[in-house]
Amino acid sequence: MASRNVAACLPDRKSGANPYLYRLARAALAGIAVFLYFCSVPARAQYLLRPAQPEDRITLLPSDMAIFESADGRRDLPCTVTPRRPELGFDLRFHSGYDVTLPMNELSGEGQSVTILFRIYPQGEPGRAAYFLQRFHAPAIEDDAKGDAFLQGGIDLGEGSYHVDWLMRDGIERICSTNWDFDVALPPKDKPMALLIRPNELAESTPEPFVNDTLKPVHDGESLNVRLLVNFAPEDSLSATMPRSDADALVSILKAIQRDPRVGHISLVAFNIGDARIIYRQDTAEQIDFPALGRALQTVKLGTVDLRHLEEKHSETNFLESLIEHEMGTSTHPDAVIFAGPKARLDANVPQDDLRRIGNIECPVFYLNYNPNPQATPWKDSISHAIRVFKGTEYTISRPRDLWLSTTEMVSRIVRLKREKAVTASTGSGARQTDGSSQ
Q1: Which residue has the higher pLDDT, 412 or 433?
Q2: Which end of the chain is more exposed for a tag (fewer CB within 10 A), N or C?
Q3: pLDDT: which is higher, 18 or 266
Q4: Contacts of 334 (CB under 8 A, 6+ apart)
Q5: Within its chain, how far is the Cα of 214 from the centroid?
Q6: Contact of 342 with 370, CB cutoff 8 Å
Q7: Residue 34 lies in a domain
Q8: CA gyration radius for the chain?
Q9: Cα 163 to Cα 315: distance, rounded to the nearest angstrom
Q10: What is the residue-averaged pLDDT of the chain?
Q11: In the beta sheet, which residues pair with residue 249?
């Protein structure tokens, strides 16, 4: 028997031009004037339709355009579409989309498929519409299968008011269609935040977070050199996988720091306390190599226990102590050391007397603690306890607004402390020169 509920039908990953484009070609051969935009289809479930030339327009099949222009929805194919409320992500982009349920028996048979096409545009401006195509290929399903198939689609967008026209078609041309309007806006208290997507802008959702997409504004002033020590681990320490939401949040923390124009150079150490090892290290550079970081993180095996760690008492605590001593116990320090990650709940904290042996750290220390549910876990963790020795400052990151406020304040403090240190050094040097000249 088929499973009662299918989380998502598998996307069609066959190479070649998209079936919808073949339909356009057939229409053209039948004498219908269309702009053809054949291209190699990426192996992903949803993508933005693009014309062959920027000046061209996306032209749909007349039957699809007629459905979009009709105010009446169709239910030849009995599906239920639920628009998803726009939410601001840690990447400072609004994310919206839809959820679709479709009775499993509507997909019965061998290799049935459905195609979703939708357009979205700022209200009153259909000439600025973006068109998205999505194809799902179902596994073999029995005729008497119960339950629903569950499909999803997503889009990134800026503030504004939008209209969506949406349709889904199966292999025998049955149609399910609908439309809806929605608004995207920051709350008044968040208006100072600078979003990374402009008002009324539409974009594809990033398929995964480890991409080099950070644009740094030009800045002629202070150029900081910071060292990032990031615990790449799921917020739920018992999780056997790294949820996309946790990966997005941690990567967004790194990109928020890198994006600040006052930060000129970054060194990175990515580690996993549960695995008690350093996963990735990048020496000082202007940009983080996020694809390389993503590949390195694939080697982390969550939910497993190394027998060597079982034999060593407090292995995770020992690892954290060793990491801090190695990264902070050097003779030269950057302008700041920044820890980041979820709560590190260890069975024992690093003894503070051991950390005091490192001596005076000549730069400020910060901890950006990703904690999506601070009410459930309000207590300090092992990293919080460790940085107390260095008079470190901790910020709790629960929402995108927290990340924006924390990084803005943190970098401003680093700049101020660096300037104060330079003034102190200059004053001390001047005093020594005066003493020498008076002898």
Answers
A1: 412
A2: C
A3: 266
A4: 225, 226, 227, 267, 284, 363
A5: 12
A6: yes
A7: no
A8: 27
A9: 55
A10: 84
A11: none
- The verdict on 265 and 186 lying in the same domain is no
* pLDDT (average), residues 172-193: 94
Distances in Å between the Cα of 371 and the Cα atoms of 374, 376, 395 are 6, 9, 10
Do 254 and 185 belong together in one domain?
no
382-401 mean pLDDT: 95
75 lies in some domain: yes
pTM recorded for the entire structure: 0.81
User: Do 57 and 147 meet the contact criterion of CB atoms below 8 Å apart?
Assistant: no
Average pLDDT over residues 405-428: 90
Q: Give the integer Cα–Cα distance in Å for 95 and 102.
A: 23
Same domain? 195 vs 326 = no
Q: Which of 187-191, 225-229, 288-292 has the lowest mean pLDDT?
A: 187-191
* Cα–Cα distance, 186 to 252 (Å, whole number): 19
Q: Which helix (H) or strand (E) holds 175?
A: strand 175-184
Q: Tell me the three state secondary structure of residue 192.
A: coil
CB 205 within 8 A of CB 95: yes
Q: Which residue has the higher pLDDT, 45 or 378?
A: 378
CATH code of the domain in which 144 resides? 2.60.40.10
372 and 258 in a common domain: yes
Q: Is the residue at 122 inside a domain? A: yes
Q: Say yes or no: 286 and 197 in one domain.
A: no
Amino acid at 307: L
Task: Reply yes or no on whether the pLDDT at 20 is more than 90.
Answer: no
Please give the average per-residue pLDDT across 116-121, as a whole number: 96
**Residue 383 to residues 9, 139, 277, 316, 410, Cα–Cα distance (Å):** 42, 47, 16, 12, 18
| DSSP state at residue 106 | G
Sheet strand arrangement including 263-272? 277-285, 263-272, 224-231, 336-342, 365-370, 393-397
Distance CA 207, CA 44 (A): 8
Q: How far apart are CA 53 and CA 266, in angstroms?
A: 39
Task: Please state the rounded mean pLDDT for residues 299-303.
Answer: 76
